[in-house]
């Protein structure tokens, strides 16, 4: 089950990665015309509406992305089937259609059906379409129907399946919707404390990938909160809309880079140079783009207690930002780029106070991490045991002698996994290799760590993740080349 959820989380990364494009377009548009929202500038209107075309269609992107990512061949017909599945359901369960089915006026229809075009239904549509692809993409029909065999059959079966799913959702969706709204309302009614609790659990769920489920409730229009969409569209309450985003900026732009500095300063003398190469890049990625996994996975499993502290500090950051109503937003993650783009949006409220808060959090992260690492001798990067030092030093010589470091890293990681005899499948998300192996005992974790990767996460008897960083796609491509040879 956990492996399936992990795969779902990975599939969501493709559509989520589109959001920065919307952030750039809308951010520049609002920067040009912050008060008129496009009414005072044709260029601003063009950019804002172009960005809105992405934000407003997140559910469709989820349906397509999940169908593609969950299909066994990552084939385009699976993506098409995801779109078909979504259109069938959202049309059948639209307010107008439900009014016809129930024989009532549209105003009497349950308001849940007015929110049927949401991320939840998009994900369900993508999952069902991927199942149909995996089951029917190679089915051969009788000669009279041969034209509809194989991949052409998948959209048809997806549409048929969604007829059944729609019938179920006709009764289930109003109940699910009410439950999600109640959950979101219970957190939102807590005000700043609710934002703090959300931030805490958001970080705690990172290792499992289940943070995407939590994010969808607050960031997207699953429970009516839609914090990201409303913030960028300027439809909300100033000082309130954005409360589930703002507190991440002090942590991602300042706190985690400061934690990286603390880990560098506490590294063993002979390991500082190697630790610096990892932590400098990870710290910059966190500050500039808001991609935090290279830092977080560098100590998440080496020092889990330290990671809980990080989660708690994230919760405190969201609580403080919400308490003082300092708001800023992001299209992708809480990095410098999104901060600059969102600071001129209509609903941004005293965003530069988040920088002051970030400076304070940088000091807290640095001194607290440094104290805890030395006090409890946490094995953060650069503090591993001596036997690991020797392995890494040997690896340094090999890498420096090779002109293509990515290819070398890929080869060593693949060998450490057990090679062709042990590796079943290879995939990747934004920063991690996600692999399935036959025998976990055949995996040489020390050899993999010797390549300089931030960390390794064993998520089941046959599933392992290797945290590489933002260059993970190139490493995955090199491994795929090795597997084909």
TrEMBL record:
Coiled coil: none annotated. The chain crosses the membrane at residues 12-32, 44-68, 80-104, 116-133, 153-173, 244-263, 275-291, 297-321, 328-346, 352-373. It comes from the Bacteria. One of its GO terms (molecular function) is N-acetylglucosamine transmembrane transporter activity. GO terms for cellular component: organelle inner membrane; plasma membrane. The gene is nagE. Residues 1-385 form the PTS EIIC type-1 domain. GO terms for biological process: N-acetylglucosamine transport; phosphoenolpyruvate-dependent sugar phosphotransferase system. The keyword tRNA processing does not apply. The keyword Secreted does not apply. This is PTS glucose transporter subunit IIBC. NCBIfam families: EIIB_glc, PTS-II-BC-nag. Residues 407-485 form the PTS EIIB type-1 domain. The active site is at 429 (phosphocysteine intermediate). It is a multi-pass membrane protein. It is found in: Cell membrane.
């Amino acid at each position: 089950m956990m492996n399936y959820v992990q795969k779902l989380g990975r599939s969501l990364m493709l559509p989520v990665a589109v959001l920065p494009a919307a952030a750039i377009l809308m951010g520049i548009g609002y920067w040009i015309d912050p008060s008129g929202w496009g009414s005072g500038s044709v260029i601003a209107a063009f950019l804002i509406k172009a960005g809105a075309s992405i934000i407003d269609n997140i559910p469709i992107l989820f349906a397509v992305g999940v169908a593609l990512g969950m299909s066994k061949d990552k084939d385009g017909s699976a993506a098409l089937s995801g779109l078909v599945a979504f259109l069938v359901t959202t049309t059948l369960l639209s307010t107008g259609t439900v009014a016809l089915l129930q024989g009532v006026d549209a105003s009497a229809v349950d308001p849940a059906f007015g929110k049927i075009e949401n991320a939840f239904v998009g994900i369900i549509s993508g999952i069902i379409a991927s199942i149909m692809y995996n089951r029917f993409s190679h089915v051969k029909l009788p000669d009279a129907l041969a034209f509809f065999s194989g991949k052409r059959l998948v959209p048809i079966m997806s549409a048929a399946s969604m007829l059944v799913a729609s019938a179920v959702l006709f009764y289930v969706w109003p109940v699910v919707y009410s439950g999600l709204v109640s959950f979101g309302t219970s957190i939102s009614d807590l005000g700043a404390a609710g934002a703090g609790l959300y931030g805490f659990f958001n970080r705690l769920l990172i290792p499992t990938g289940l943070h995407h489920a939590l994010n969808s409730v607050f960031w997207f229009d699953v429970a009516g909160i839609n914090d990201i969409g409303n913030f960028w569209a300027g439809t909300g309450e100033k000082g309130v809309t954005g409360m589930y985003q703002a507190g991440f900026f002090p942590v991602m732009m300042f706190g985690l880079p400061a934690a990286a500095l603390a880990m560098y300063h506490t590294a063993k003398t002979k390991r500082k140079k190697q630790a610096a190469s990892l932590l400098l890049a990870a710290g910059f990625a966190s500050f500039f783009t808001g991609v935090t996994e290279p830092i977080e996975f560098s100590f998440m499993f080496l020092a889990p207690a330290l990671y809980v502290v990080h989660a708690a500090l994230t919760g405190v950051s969201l609580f403080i930002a919400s308490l003082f109503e300092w708001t800023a937003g992001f299209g992708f993650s809480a990095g410098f780029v999104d901060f600059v783009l969102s600071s001129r949006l209509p609903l941004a409220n005293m965003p530069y106070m988040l920088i002051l808060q970030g400076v304070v959090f940088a000091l807290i992260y640095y001194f607290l991490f440094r104290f805890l690492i030395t006090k409890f001798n946490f094995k953060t990067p650069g503090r591993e045991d001596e036997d690991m030092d020797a392995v890494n030093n040997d690896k340094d010589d090999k890498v420096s002698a090779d002109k293509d470091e990515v290819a070398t890293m890929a080869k060593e990681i693949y060998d450490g996994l057990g090679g062709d005899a042990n590796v079943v499948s290879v995939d990747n998300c934004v920063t991690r290799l996600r692999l399935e192996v036959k025998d976990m005992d055949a995996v040489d974790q020390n050899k993999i760590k010797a390549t300089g990767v931030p960390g390794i996460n064993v998520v089941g008897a046959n599933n392992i993740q290797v945290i590489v960083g933002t260059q993970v796609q190139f490493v995955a491509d090199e491994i795929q080349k090795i597997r084909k040879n």
